[in-house]
Amino acid sequence: MTTALITGTTAGIGAAFAGRLAADGHNLVLVARDEKRLREQAADLHDRHGVEADVLVADLSEDDGIAAVEARLRDRTHPVDLLVNNAGFGNRDRYLEVPITDELRMLKLHCEAVLRLTSAGAETMRSRGRGGVINVASIAAFFPRGTYGASKAWVVQFTQGAAKDLASAGVRMMALCPGFVRTEFHARAGIKRESVPSWLWLDADRLVTAALKDFARGKSLSIPDPRYKAMTGLAKLAPRSAISTLSSKVGRPPAK
């Protein structure tokens, strides 16, 4: 039986990945900061699907947390076959309205942690000649939106480049770019649902189903919804200044 390690797994897209992969018969390693929620989730998935669900408590915006997950990914006696780097957070405020400590924490989590965990996982997978990594980015990667958009653009570029480098080694890699998904993510970021047009909201379970289909097809980039695919295409054609203005307004309060 194969094993999947998922970060940021207690809610939202991470929880949807955990539920779907458990239903498909994968054993799991669940990674998040909240031990109570992790253990409740692990017990539920084990009871419902009969899979093993290990718990790894780690804050991936801290070196110790990243190192703990790196060590698990390098364990060749209990190898991880699929890594889903999903942990992340957002800020609704504009540049210079967000404390620099939060900006640096975001870069640590979205970029350094993704690089280090992908490297640890992919190295072991390459030695076995098989495995896969899904790095959760965002549709914001294609739109100017401060540190969040910039960090997710890095995830996309890094993942697609690494996918080409590892293709001949049997390791598949894909960047997943969701849009606005009905999860705790936006509430934690202070983004009110009514500030985002209703037609932009996606369902986490459907998103994961589409993403896994794209991954099975060998895609290195997944934008799993026709609406967001169309928006990304238009973004390439529209004036950059107009795209920047629109992106800076969606889900944010009026400028001060």
From TrEMBL:
Q: CDD domains of this UniProt entry?
A: SDR_c
Q: Which InterPro entries match?
A: SDR_fam
Q: Which UniProt keywords apply?
A: Oxidoreductase
Q: Would the keyword Flavoprotein turn up in this protein's UniProt record?
A: no
Q: Which Pfam families match?
A: adh_short (PF00106)
Extract the PANTHER family matched here: DEHYDROGENASE/REDUCTASE SDR FAMILY MEMBER 7B, SHORT-CHAIN DEHYDROGENASE-RELATED
Family per similarity comment: Belongs to the short-chain dehydrogenases/reductases (SDR) family.
Q: Give the protein's recorded name.
A: SDR family oxidoreductase
What organism is the protein native to?
Streptomyces niphimycinicus
Biological classification of the source: Bacteria, Bacillati, Actinomycetota, Actinomycetes, Kitasatosporales
